Amino acid sequence: MSDHQGGPSAAAVTASDVGAAMHKYKEERDKRIRRDATTQYMDEVDMRNNESMKHFLEDPWVPSEDPLSPAPARPLQDGARTEVLILGAGYGGLLYAVRLQQAGVLLEDITIIDSAGDFGGTWYWNRYPGLMCDVESYIYMPLLEETGYMPKHKYAYGSELREQAERVADKFNLRDRAIFQSTVDGAVWSNEDNEWVVSCTERRKGRHPVPFTIRATFLITASGLLHYLKVPKFDGLDEFKGRIFHTSRWDFNCTGGSPTDPHMTKLADKKVGIIGTGATAIQAVPQLAKSAKELYVFQRTPSSVDVRGQEPTDPAKWAAEIAHKKGWQRERALNFSSFLADVHPKPDVNMVDDAWTRMPAYSALIGNTRYVKPEEVPSYIGEMVALDLVQADRIRARVDTIVQDPDTASKLKAWYPVWCKRPTFHDDYLPTFNLPHVTLVDTNGKGVDRLTPTGVVVNGKEYDVDVLILSTGFRSPGASTTPGAGASIPLKGRSGRTIEEHFHNEGVSTLFGMMSRDFPNLFWPGVRQASVGVNVTFILDFHATTVAQIITNAATRSGNVPTPARRHNFTLEPTLEAQHDWGMRMMAGAAKGAFILGCTPSYLNMEGALDQYVLSPMTPEEQFKAAKGGAFPTGLPDYVNTVQEWTRQGDLKGIEVKSIL
Questions:
Q1: In sequence order, which residues have a C-beta less than 8 Å from that of residue 113 and are 6 or more positions away?
Q2: Predicted local distance difference test score (pLDDT) of residue 288
Q3: Which of 183, 253, 205 is CA-nearest to residue 58?
Q4: In whole angstroms, how far apart are CA 329 and each of 348, 474, 544, 639?
Q5: Res 11: pLDDT
Q6: Do 552 and 558 touch, CB atoms closer than 8 A?
Q7: Which of 21, 330, 360, 601 is positioned for an S-S bond with 607, CB 3.0–4.6 A?
Q8: What is the distance between the alpha carbons of residues 600 and 635, in angstroms, rounded to a whole number?
């Protein structure tokens, strides 16, 4: 077995150890399997159409406007044109806007639209106490070189992450190019005018919705992966009489405190319940415990909780060792990605050097350079479990050293491989369960029975709560199989078909996971047929940079002549041959995708629905479609190298560029 960096060698793990672990993993998984899978949750469309559930979606960060006062003017009025329309004002949308400007697209030709009230994306919506990013701030926060900003800590807190979005917007003059509190309801390609016709609705708080249309030469969907909150369809949900809210719409009017003040003084006499123990709850629970009279933590599946090791940024080290040369942030991000993808040989220096970079088995999820034949899948999964087991056992043992009650400690141990559910890192979460007013309510994998007007029922026992907080996460990235699904809008291309219909008929068909034939001038940062990783910002930046290069290169190669009506008089889209060749790369690594089978239900496997899909009977044609629909199989560093080499050729091979003059 090859030697991997990351603590004791997996060679010390025996076949018996692996077998016992996999038996325990299956036993725990089987407790949690539900037939309703992802349909156990309401999505935003369900809630928007349900009067009693609409409050979960209300934006708490913008004031309600007087409907009788004049509405603020939008940058674009109904029917106006823009060269580039970007859906999303989070880090992804900002990076597209910045990289396009740097490539020569004029600021006045860029428009950003978002349902939020300001820039920030997930960091706009999420402002719960304890919020921080689990990826190092030096590689996660975008455009640190360009803004000259030094993060305050190795892992940034929520307010600072939101402030960086605002800093980028201000530096690149994007505020006047943004349309906020507005949704995109659909987009259709006009064959006659060679542009996207985008239907939108202005939904300013306190006012009636106002529909409007934007016409765009290029359309970019950058709405994010963890953006659409989900709420379980609990029996009795609409009967609960206490205060209830989702963590991504934190109600400080109820709890006290603010996004910058974690002292929730209004909870001092309250019994508080929080449902969910994923990455959000790990951060919020310690803060709630400091304020609540009593705290009940309702758990279906425990998280793996490792050491965080937070530390303030040392200005001297920052200047001398981190931000000390041009291109440092990109170099550091690629170094980080090389350790996560378990490349061989590894870089001489581990620049980030945190727990992420010492879990080589996580490469089962995000890709590695191993080639696995279908008949080798069982042994490959066994190898990955062995590679993970030393660390997994250490993390489980850590619970016993921190949590004083043996029964509680036992219930807080995660029994699944590291790739099945996002690992977490926190130094205060586990000690919280030693406090006398904090109770772990473990549901033995079954989840909450129901809500009553005054509380939560688990295993037939009712727990009275005054305030109930839903830390139930977001729609699965697996549900965002297309840019249309990712943005919750119908996208109709040249043939009049939606991109969902296109992929259903042809299978996922893209070039680089960024664009697809019959959908001209449409780009998106994808999951299918693109690379994935934990440092999403770097991936978004790479996509944005590549798309900007494609557009400006296409303008040159097409002999583009700007006219008063539009500056980009050409269309571009992949050729069928290029899409086929790219899809075959996914097929070559498809067998490795079997690692997700047998995972405990989570958003990564669509609450177990992915198993049902993969194991269902398929025709050869269906198998072909499924095999090419996965992520880039050989890891982010190889994906970057592959696309960069194509870009360096400069001939746009595989992309058809047509002048429309």
A1: 85, 86, 87, 88, 89, 178, 179, 180, 182, 184, 200, 214
A2: 98
A3: 205
A4: 17, 29, 16, 18
A5: 61
A6: no
A7: 601
A8: 23
